[in-house]
Design goal:
Strand content of chain A: 15-25%
CATH topology of the largest domain in chain A: Sufe protein. Chain: A
Shape of chain A: elongated
Number of domains of chain A: 3
Strand content of chain B: 5-15%
Number of helices of chain A: 12
Radius of gyration of chain B: 22 Å
Largest interface: A-B, 39 and 30 residues
CATH class of the largest domain in chain A: Alpha Beta
Number of strands of chain B: 13
Strand order of the largest sheet of chain B: 2-8-7-6-5-3-4
Bound molecules: pyridoxal-5'-phosphate
CATH architecture of the largest domain in chain B: 3-Layer(aba) Sandwich
Oligomer: heterodimer
Distance between the termini of chain B: 44 Å
Helix content of chain B: 40-55%
Radius of gyration of chain A: 26 Å
Helix content of chain A: 40-55%
Low-confidence stretches of chain B: none
Largest sheet of chain B: 7 strands, mixed
Number of strands of chain A: 8
Number of helices of chain B: 13
CATH superfamily of the largest domain in chain B: Type I PLP-dependent aspartate aminotransferase-like (Major domain)
Number of domains of chain B: 2
Structural class of chain A: alpha+beta
CATH topology of the largest domain in chain B: Aspartate Aminotransferase, domain 2
Order of helices and strands of chain A: HEEEHHHHEEHHHHHEEHHE
Amino acid sequence: MWNYSEKVMDHFLNPRNVGEIVAADGVGEVGNIVCGDAMKLYIKLSADKQHIDQVGFQTFGCASAIASASALTEMLRGKSLAEAAALTNQDIAHYLGELPEEKMHCSVMGMEAFQAAMHDIRKKHPELNLPGGENDLTGEDRIVCQCFSISERKIKEVVQQNHLTTVEHVTHYCKAGGGCGGCKGEIQSILDKLNGSAAAASPAAARPAPGAPLTNLQKMKLVQETFDEVIRPGLMKDGGDAELVDIDGDTVYVRLQGRCASCPSATQTLKHWVEAKLRELVSTALAVEEVKG
Amino acid sequence: MTNEIVYVDNNATTCVAPEVFAAMQPFLTEYYGNPSSVYPFSGPAAKAIEQARVSLAALVGATTEEIIFTSCGSESDSTAIMSALATQAGRRKILTTMVEHPAVLNVCRNLQKQGIHVDYLRVDSQGRIDLDEARALISSDTALVTVMFANNEIGNLYPVWELAEMAHAKGALFHTDAVQAVGKIPINLSGSAIDFLSLSGHKLHAPKGIGALYRRRFVPFAPFLAGGHQEHGQRAGTENVAGIAALGKAAELAQQHLAAEAVQLAALRDRLQAGLLASCPDAMVNGDLQHRLPNTLNICFKYIEGEAILLRLYQAGKICASSGSACTTGSLEPSHVLRAMGLDYQALHGSIRFSFSRYNTDQDVELILAVMPGIVKALRELSPFGRN
Ligand SMILES: Cc1ncc(COP(=O)(O)O)c(C=O)c1O
């Protein structure tokens, strides 16, 4: 059960400024039906083109998507273009009195729709000479998350504006990484670049994306888990067993037990199976050494 | 407060029947003795367990020694799967379906990481599996075929009797997760090839936290929980006497009322289905209409999103239903069952499940039919999709 604030429920049940504006100065469309939420924002400017006169929206999505869109339209109405440009997704969340963490992407979607509408205004009204709007599809506008079409720029923006430190947070805020998960490593590198090593050391980052760089602590935990959940059950199937003796840097010290200990092909087992499993599931940098006796 | 609730989410859980509550109460108050103790004070507890075993065995056409009480449906599922692997060391394959409950699916995923080969049967657009595909995938390496009796989301019934025979033909064991079926449709296991069957109390008006596993007589078994000798050494842990007594009573009630109830629930469901299809444009029923639980309706409303529909339903009349939409669970992916069926994304996010129990009435259906068209219309007016 989601715990929605009264304000969210109010904007969900009584959304403001619903509908299309026919002669809009800018229309922004984001999301799509595959993702489960989508929004269309219509902006009409004042006669002098300096202020936002009317705003309208259409949203496909859950309660918080509808409430975020409704809130955004209320916040935009009457603002100068410069004031509006300074809004962030946090402002939407605050206006609604907080959104559940997993639903923050709804507020981000509102901001994206606004940015898309601004882009449209720039195109339709080049005479206004509005700043910003260069899109560079090979650089920051390159799509990182293919499942939800999220660009590097978008990810950087949500990370910086919301002080995010983990891939999971990034997924909650903009969905990136929430589909096939194939881009989690890349999101981690974006996080690392932006946050330096601070993020990697945070305990919340305990279970990193596959392929992501590991801290020593994470590595040790993962080796231990893999050892208990995969390697020992695997060896036990054949009447063997093993003990994790120590981890030193990238070297894992293992003592074979049970039938493995007396098995002539023990070194083979160690190198080929235990090491391969650890490399596959933890880090390709790992090497296994046998501890005798 | 609860009187005002219109509860049509009985596949999620059910209310405890008053008779069931009465049957379990003495074991939470007066007769708190450990059923394994020797003095007479523990007698009623031990007796209650055996009486519950008789009632539950009768409901599914089993003998009493074939019933093992567990803590929940999930434990029963895990027990059956792990036991089938443990007792057949030479067989390293499992066959299941893409539409199982996570209690089966996630166990299989974990086993894959440990080198067990798992095949997942595909389903067609109505959620049906292909028996020929199943036959082709069962081999002399297969330890277990596990296919649910009834699907929790769409209510589909699966051909478990045939599948069990098929598994046996290749020397494999057969398990069915019947958590959604027991108490809703007649099941007679006597003489069948089903080796394991899981059930859960809270889906048939007993409380949460009590389940059972049927294990066919003489089928090799490895306990999931080791420890004390309870349940004839098949499941350690001091018995949940009150829960077991409750499950026994619930089984008794189910058996008494099952035939009449199935007709009553199907009537409610069919009225709701016909009414919604008639009053809401662009709605479509999901599942196999010929082979479906009598109490379940899964219906999708195109162009709108499930969580929004659910919250509006609650707002309009405290109507409690559920949805396969991504937003309701906090995951970003909608229902794995509806996706496996290849449902169109226009429809996928707007699916709602209504599931009835013996406590639902015509008025409940009337209320849903009265509010739903307005909700669908209001949300569609907000939606950028579905207009030209
Ligand atoms: C088909 C099915 N299997 C298993 C379960 C799990 O049962 P329990 O909650 O008792 O563990 C459920 C309940 O949600 C279910 O619907």
